[in-house]
Amino acid sequence: MKVKRSQRLIDMTRYLMEHPHTLIPLPFFVHRYESAKSSISEDITILKRTFSENGMGTLKTIPGAAGGSIFIPSIQYDEASGFINKMKTELNDSSRYISGGYLYMTDILSHPSVVRNVGRIIISQYVNQKIDYVMTMATGGISIAEMVASYLNVPFVVARHESKITDGSTINVNYISGSSDRINRMVLSKRSLPPKSNVLIVDDYMKGGGTISGLAALIKEFDCHLAGVSVFAEDNYNGKRAFDFDYTSLIKVNIDQKHINVSDGNYVQNIFNQ
């Protein structure tokens, strides 16, 4: 059914945002709206400019018979830095101290708008990388990992400490907690990751890095490649991390005798100041 341009633009925006990192051929929109190719091309030009000006992401256009449009979500510096500053303000509260040197963040990370922004910030650094899967541990990082996977339009997998009967055959690794020196177990179904996949690790909070190290070891057991590591918050850990590869964090938490100080993570320095 033929529709007005205003209606087309709204529906095209919705469709592109619901299918990020996916090549949408021009004929798809032509048939969808029963419109001429020239009209759809003009619409795409409008959307491309709008996405860019509003910091929503990039709309790439690929010419040729096999071409089309690909929407790549991202976030601009001003919006990302404003969000990080807001997180620092809200978390800079000594009442959030949890025994063992941890920071209570569950209430913050339960807000969909917060998780969406965290996801956009994390995926912005991987726009030029091929990511096949997002991985996390069955803790507070699940909501962030799911949002990151949604923006990348890839599956996400969750490792656990114990397997379930519905997992079938599993692969497990033992790892040492970087903060407590305890030996823990991590399992994942053999069907979770195809070999040679590029896997991004995402988590909510990193202290000694033991969980990250365990996830990286699990990825290796599946004969997959570690594409990157991103966490929402990292502890200002004084000891040696359990791993020696690069990672990014949005905020850094320093806890001194139950006094909490939250500052910029290395994401600000590594990404924004390039």
Count of helix runs: 8
C-alpha end-to-end distance: 48 Å
Whole-number average pLDDT?
90
What CATH architecture of the largest domain would you give?
3-Layer(aba) Sandwich
| Quaternary class | single chain
Largest sheet: 6 strands, mixed
The third-level CATH topology of the largest domain is: Rossmann fold
**Any idea of the CATH class of the largest domain?**
Alpha Beta
Helix content: 25-40%
Q: What is the succession of H and E elements?
A: HHHEEHEEHEHEEEEHEEEH
How much strand?
A: 25-35%
- Given helix and strand content, the structural type is alpha/beta
Catalogue the unreliable spans. Answer: none
Radius of gyration: 21 Å
Q: Shape, please?
A: globular
Please give the number of β-strands: 12
Q: Provide the spatial order of strands within the biggest beta sheet.
A: 6-5-9-10-11-12
What is the total number of structural domains?
2
What keyword list fits this structure?
274 residues; alpha/beta; 2 domains; 35% helix; globular
Give an account of the 3D structure.
Helix content is 35%, strand content 27%. It is of the alpha/beta class and 274 residues long. The protein folds into 2 domains: 5-73, Winged helix-like DNA-binding domain superfamily/Winged helix DNA-binding domain (Arc Repressor Mutant, subunit A, Orthogonal Bundle), CATH 1.10.10.10; 77-272, Rossmann fold. Strands 6-5-9-10-11-12 form a 6-stranded mixed β-sheet, with helices on both faces. Helix 1 (5-18) packs across helix 3. Residues 107-260 form the Phosphoribosyltransferase domain.
